């Protein structure tokens, strides 16, 4: 009843039909697609004011970031341990064991640029004081803004809760 040639013709017919449908879908998406249409206010004949922009601005203004001291008081060192993984590429937690960056054992409330054997950048050498949790948080948020010219090539950690958790984890190594 069915030989090899008949089965080959049936399978070929299904594959051909599938190819025609796929090409048809592709062609119709090119003809009728709306890729990269004009954005609101650009190249449009008119703009309908729906008031959504005002609501989104109002919602954005309502978001208030808690003071770092309050967030740090409720910080979770366990969550900070997971965040430490991105730091350990350059830093170590063993006292006196510098890597690409200075060791961070006892960093919380340690005087700035006090890691023995590490060559600090002029940006950090020009700063006085200690690495309080608030100072560490400001540095981690944006190292290049906190100390312009720093050797630390880290983009920063924008989330205040993440910074607080990481500092709480570092505080366990005193």
Which helices and strands occur, and which strands form pairs?
Layout: H1 4-32, H2 52-62, H3 68-73, H4 77-84, H5 122-125, H6 133-141, H7 143-146, H8 160-171
GO molecular function: electron transfer activity; heme binding; metal ion binding
Organism: Dinoroseobacter shibae (strain DSM 16493 / NCIMB 14021 / DFL 12)
Domain Cytochrome c: 75-174
The proportion of residues forming helix, as a percent range, comes to 40-55%
Strand content: under 5%
Q: Mind telling me the CATH superfamily name of the largest domain?
A: Cytochrome c-like domain
Can you tell me the CATH topology of the largest domain? Answer: Cytochrome Bc1 Complex, Chain D, domain 2
- Overall number of domains: 2
Q: Which parts are unreliable, with pLDDT below 50 for 5 consecutive residues or more? A: none
User: Would you tell me the overall average pLDDT?
Assistant: 85
GO molecular function: electron transfer activity; heme binding; metal ion binding
Organism: Dinoroseobacter shibae (strain DSM 16493 / NCIMB 14021 / DFL 12)
Domain Cytochrome c: 75-174
InterPro entries: Cyt_c-like_dom (IPR009056), Cyt_c-like_dom_sf (IPR036909), Cyt_c_1A/1B (IPR002327)
